[in-house]
Write a structure and sequence with these properties.
Elements lengths: L1 E6 L3 H12 L4 E7 L2 H11 L3 E5 L7 H9 L8 E6 L7 H6 L4 E4 L4 H12 L4 E2 L5 H8 L8 H4 L4 H11 L4 H8 L3 H15 L4 H10 L10
Parallel strand pairs: 1-2, 1-3, 3-4, 4-5, 5-6
Helix pairs in contact: 2-3, 8-10, 8-11, 9-10
InterPro entries: CheY-like_superfamily (IPR011006), NreC/VraR/RcsB-like_REC (IPR058245), Sig_transdc_resp-reg_C-effctor (IPR016032), Sig_transdc_resp-reg_receiver (IPR001789), Tscrpt_reg_LuxR_C (IPR000792), WalR-like (IPR039420)
Organism: Streptomyces salinarius
Protein name: Response regulator
Length: about 220
Amino acid sequence: MIRVLLADDQSLVRAGFRALLDAQPDIEVVAEAADGEEAVRSIRELRPDVVLMDIRMPLRDGLAATREVTGDPELHDVKVVMLTTFELDEYVFEAIRSGASGFLVKDTEPEELLRAVRAVVDGDALLSPGVTRRLIAEFAARSKEPAAAAEMARLTEREREVMALVGIGLSNEEIARRLVVSPLTAKTHVSRTMVKLGARDRAQLVVLAYESGLVRPGWLG
């Protein structure tokens, strides 16, 4: 059972998401929060698998709440998906850099929301269908904290190649086809790269790919 916490200051949004999620046999909404402070308290108490976190909330916004959650080693297994009202939200990339596993626009299709919850539990990065890789590149270009050269030096040539492909948005299956290897081998390379770089999840690996210069804005593969 995937345990989900909803954090949004709009009760109607929470009610809609809860109705959809609770109707699934493998998903359970364990709590709701109307502001960032309440969200953090509930996350510490309940340790949900996934948090759907609105970016703009009173008392403490979603970015600050996310940084607190992802910065706590005891909450390492909690995955945060940011909710935005507009696809071009200026905080989208900052949300991923803050540790979020991805983001969705609030009017996303029900099937996409369900896929998102299940995907982040499996360790995949989650990008709203309406947000293109070119948009991610735009935000990545603004990064001011390049990855340490020493960290990148830990990677093998194949791992750097795989990381670059992750950075341009390819799935494990697409990487496998590109490199002519099995999906399991591609997944293993991605996992080892994440461990070596200390990346929390695939989303942060994408960020590091841009910050290190391994992938440059505008490259779409």
